[in-house]
């Protein structure tokens, strides 16, 4: 078996994922937990990390590369932002060392778009991007990274030229939990997904995104007047928000650019269905694999290059 | 002093308003409370009503006309819906009597748009509409009734041809209370409103409503990157939602129709500012006066006509 070379960590707001990576790049161990930034800020970042390193018996001298919210101001150590436009490779060079650790722990920076009209930030997705797109990629790519805050990134010849965040996932969450529509979706978790209702709402919102906040209300009126099911209401809300997101993202993107979807699990299925329904061509890259590849690229640039020189 | 003729009640989800009206149409007394449908469904509708009638010493034999959520399925007595397209006058004839009361209590119906693509319902706003527009009005009117669920109604020669609900007020509420943007607006209640930020977001969302769910996120990124204030973030969220609402409402309305704004208080100020900023012509009618006028029109049609005949 190959020797452990470094540890890669994707440390989000509410999730923690760690991989022990061997000298040949293989995955020697993996940990997943809900100890994201919010939990770790209370428990202590160093302690949370050490617990997971111990669980995998990670050697005391191998370094750790981290991406995500651990580098936010309210995180472990602030890792700042690389400003757009920027090359993907610049992300690799901005890692910040965590002081006072027995081993070398570094956190990757986020990306910032400092425009007055469309200020935007990301943390964690830049590392997915790094793993999804080759640094020497040619042409224009529109990268879609769906989630709580979906990120749409424009990449031209390996340069990040701009990006936009859509609050799709979080809006779905607060609308279905805290608005009057929470009654409309009650019980939908126990029903099969209504892909028909999803597709209809998706197309309606994509065609007329200005009506999105009105279409949402039809989840209620559709139940009152047409007996729409809870699963139908859930799908209608999801389809409306995703349809409006795609319309907005493509409105500010060049025409004819191919979409690269970086997603896994439920979101992958949902967005693949959406792109097919809207006749948009796309290519999927697994989000987990992408962030791991991005972390590995950073680790290799920081540590393995030097090692091979010495 | 004129003798009391009837009692008018606007009974919403979370608010209760009652007026004692004299034979000459003058207001002899008024009550306002938070005993809306939600509270009254627990306490008992008849009991809540009687408490307020007693407080004004309303004679035991005068009738009560009610509009709003008291007529919903989960309200006092279900008052059904009048289907669009409909004349405004049809609302007057659909009142449902509450059984088992010592006095004559009637609840006005709501309006339903049973289209498959755009099902929609209203309860209470139809009575405001009745009070805002003369039944014999000529030409096309676009009526905007902002609120938790903003209603935009198209009226042509006294006929309600269609309407759309936008979840603007409720979305503002859940976003500023339950999403990550709750941090961005924290403290804004103690600051003066940022009308500049409101106008910029309003125009941006009106011009590109597809980007609304992305513009919302700039309330956060604007704070991280440009030091946007809490009041600025609050205004940005409000402006974005209202800008998208107006874009959507006017997209489905005929061009050149004049807007009739039925509003009072803070919402009146906000929407008047929005229409001025977008160079849209409008005319304002006080929402309180409109609902009272609508209730009076119904009371007169039901009781006073018969009285004058007898």
Describe this structure in words.
The structure is a homodimer of 310-residue chains. The first copy, chain A, has 310 residues and is an alpha/beta fold. Chain A contains twelve helices and 15 strands. In chain A, strand 1 (4-11) and strand 2 form a beta hairpin. In chain A, helix 7 packs parallel to helix 10 (230-251) and helix 9 runs antiparallel to helix 10 (230-251). The radius of gyration of chain A is 21 Å and the shape is globular. The two termini of chain A are 24 Å apart. The model of chain A has no long low-confidence stretch (mean pLDDT 94).
Nutshell version of this structure?
The structure is a homodimer of 310-residue chains. With 310 residues, the first copy, chain A, is α/β, with parallel strands linked by helices.
Biggest contact:
A-B, 48 and 48 residues
CATH homologous superfamily annotation of the largest domain in chain A = 2-keto-3-deoxy-galactonokinase, substrate binding domain
Beta percentage of chain A is 15-25%
The number of strands of chain A is 15
CATH topology of the largest domain in chain A: Nucleotidyltransferase, domain 5
Gyration radius of chain A, rounded: 21 Å
Helix fraction of chain A, binned, reads: 40-55%
Number of helices of chain A: 12
Low-pLDDT residue intervals, each spanning 5 or more residues of chain A: none
Q: Which sheet architecture does the biggest sheet of chain A show?
A: 6 strands, mixed
Spatial separation of the terminal alpha carbons of chain A:
24 Å
Mean of pLDDT of chain A: 94
Question: Would you list the SSEs of chain A in sequence order as H and E?
Answer: EEEHHEEEHEEEEHEEEHHHHHHEHEH
CATH class of the largest domain in chain A: Alpha Beta
Strand order of the largest sheet of chain A: 3-2-1-4-8-7
The assembly state of the depicted protein chains is: homodimer
CATH architecture of the largest domain in chain A: 2-Layer Sandwich
């Amino acid at each position: 078996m190959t020797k452990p070379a470094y540890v890669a960590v994707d440390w989000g707001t509410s999730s923690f994922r760690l991989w022990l990576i061997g000298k040949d790049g293989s995955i020697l161990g993996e940990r997943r937990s809900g100890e994201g930034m919010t939990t770790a800020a209370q428990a202590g970042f160093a302690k949370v990390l050490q617990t997971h390193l111990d669980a995998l018996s990670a050697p005391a001298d191998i370094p750790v590369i981290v991406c995500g919210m651990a580098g936010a101001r309210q995180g472990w150590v602030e890792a700042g932002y690389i400003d757009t436009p920027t090359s993907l490779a610049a992300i690799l060079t901005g890692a910040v060392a965590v002081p006072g650790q027995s081993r070398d722990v570094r956190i990757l920076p986020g990306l910032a778009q400092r425009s007055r009209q469309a200020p935007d930030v990301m943390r964690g997705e830049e590392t997915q991007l790094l793993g999804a797109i080759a640094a020497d990629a040619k042409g224009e790519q529109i990268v879609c990274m769906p989630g709580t805050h979906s990120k749409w990134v424009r990449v031209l010849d390996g340069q990040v030229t701009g990006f936009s965040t859509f609050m799709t996932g979080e809006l779905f969450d607060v609308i279905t939990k805290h608005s009057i529509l929470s009654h409309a979706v009650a019980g939908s978790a126990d029903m099969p997904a209504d892909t028909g209702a999803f597709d209809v709402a998706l197309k309606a919102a994509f065609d007329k995104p200005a009506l999105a906040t009105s279409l949402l209300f039809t989840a209620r009126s559709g139940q009152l007047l047409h007996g729409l099911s809870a699963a139908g209401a859930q799908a209608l809300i999801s389809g409306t928000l995703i349809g409006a997101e795609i319309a907005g993202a493509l409105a500010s993107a060049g025409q004819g650019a191919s979409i690269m979807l970086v997603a896994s699990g439920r979101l992958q299925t949902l967005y693949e269905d959406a792109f097919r329904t809207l006749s948009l061509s796309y290519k999927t890259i697994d989000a987990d694999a992408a962030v791991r590849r991005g972390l590995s690229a950073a680790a290799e640039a920081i540590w393995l290059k030097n090692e091979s020189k010495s």
